[in-house]
Amino acid sequence: MKFIVIEKEHRPHVALIRLNRPKELNALNLELMRELKQGLQELDKDEGTRAIVIAGNERAFAAGADIKQMAGKNSVDMLKIDQFSTWDQIRKTKKPIIAAVSGFALGGGCELSMLCDMIIASETAKFGQPEIKIGVMPGAGGTQRLTKALGKAKAMELVLTGDFLSAHEAEKHGLVNKVVPVEFYLDEALTLAQKISAMSPLAVALAKEAVNRSFETFLDEGLHFERKNFYLLFNSEDQKEGMEAFIEKRPPKFTGK
Ligand code: HXC
């Protein structure tokens, strides 16, 4: 594995997956997401693992999908790449997954943290869906999961402005389980995973499935709708302009085309 590291030595029955593209703030390229899917599938089958923690580093959990990889794509390219089948596989993981978030959790990074079952955040964590600033919109569940977690008004504000939510605000709105000082966030997530790993693995898996079921029928429809609109935007000039402007480090000029 090139972009993730799996460590099992921290706590009994707990596996830690570290996202490992630090220079790019753990931007989620297709290869990283494939490795993450594969790693999770292996851990799901591994009898010695009962709970999983996914972490980035102190500066970034993940700053989103890889804009450089997406910038030149059109809707048909995006549809053919079908990256969301990877996300769907991750969603099927039976064992509990805790996101340990420090620093940026933006775009696909925020969506990945929300795809996990629980979130432990450091005081420095910043959650957000800034896709609107590069001419697109969330595509991996942001419009659905953020709205369910925060309610319509706050979610709409974040999705339409691209503003970030601080760790304490995220806790206040119920997006995260707990906020701790940055030096403890990973330890806190591992401790929570260890506590769960002491329970019956079968009961944990079925309970996780049942809690998720409480909103999944609607989620399926919502995700489908979100993806269609996300793909559609890749045929707009504003998507090209927004992503090129990011790469060239200049403000974008949107024309509505
Ligand atoms: C590709 C990225 C990146 C990204 C950061 N980098 N985010 N590369 N994709 N999403 C790269 C930068 O280009 C830079 O590389 C290096 O990481 C460090 O980033 P800086 O911008 O120099 O750091 P800083 O000034 O501290 O700003 C941090 C930041 C900013 C605020 C997080 O990087 C940022 O705005 N990133 C983009 C966030 C975003 O829009 N995410 C949504 C993506 S779309 P170089 O080589 O220049 O040093 C998305 C869709 C999801 O996620 C749906 C499908 C899965």
What can you tell me about this protein's structure?
The protein has 257 residues and is α/β, with parallel strands linked by helices. The chain folds into 2 domains: 4-197, Alpha-Beta Complex (2-enoyl-CoA Hydratase, Chain A, domain 1), CATH 3.90.226.10; 201-248, Lyase 2-enoyl-coa Hydratase, Chain  A, domain 2 (Orthogonal Bundle), CATH 1.10.12. The protein is built from 11 helices and 10 strands. It has helices spanning 30-45, 67-70, 75-81, 84-91, 108-115, 142-150, 152-161, 167-172, 185-197, 201-232, 237-247, and strands at residues 4-11, 14-19, 51-55, 60-62, 97-101, 104-106, 118-122, 126-128, 164-166, 178-180. It has a 6-stranded mixed sheet, with helices on both faces. Strands 4-6-8-9 form a 4-stranded mixed sheet. Strand 2 (14-19), helix 1 (30-45) and strand 3 form a beta-alpha-beta unit. Helix 1 packs parallel to helix 4 (84-91) and helix 6 crosses helix 7 (152-161). The radius of gyration is 18 Å and the shape is globular. The N and C termini lie far apart (40 Å). 41% of the residues are buried. The mean pLDDT is 96.
